[in-house]
């Protein structure tokens, strides 16, 4: 049993170094072990997986799992065409989902504010710029 465990650990560590392991992702492992390279990422990933903190952290935005700004930027990048259409209409599933990601409670007002600024938001096709403009609109609107 010990030999099997030793072989498994050595194979995992070889793969980790060969793959150029970066970060094991967010979760308890990233908080405790940080972004130390190599074999430490195996421990971080194991800690994340066995504690369940990574899944919870991704859902709730805790445990070092990205900021709302980064999450919304990733959502915008993945759903740019649909989001553009929904913002132009002032309603839709992607606008509602973005409001949820950004913790906006008044989704109707959020959709209306984005619709009013559609041409400004989508001047460029860059998700980072679109995200920045949407965040600025949300922060400037006192009803959100």
TrEMBL record:
Any single Pfam family the record assigns to this protein: DUF3015
Provenance organism: Bacteriovorax stolpii
A GO MF label: glycosyltransferase activity
Keyword Transferase: yes
Keyword terms, alphabetized: Glycosyltransferase, Transferase
PROSITE patterns per UniProt: PROKAR_LIPOPROTEIN
Protein name: Orotate phosphoribosyltransferase
InterPro entries in UniProt: DUF3015
Keyword check for Transferase: yes
Taxonomy, superkingdom: Bacteria
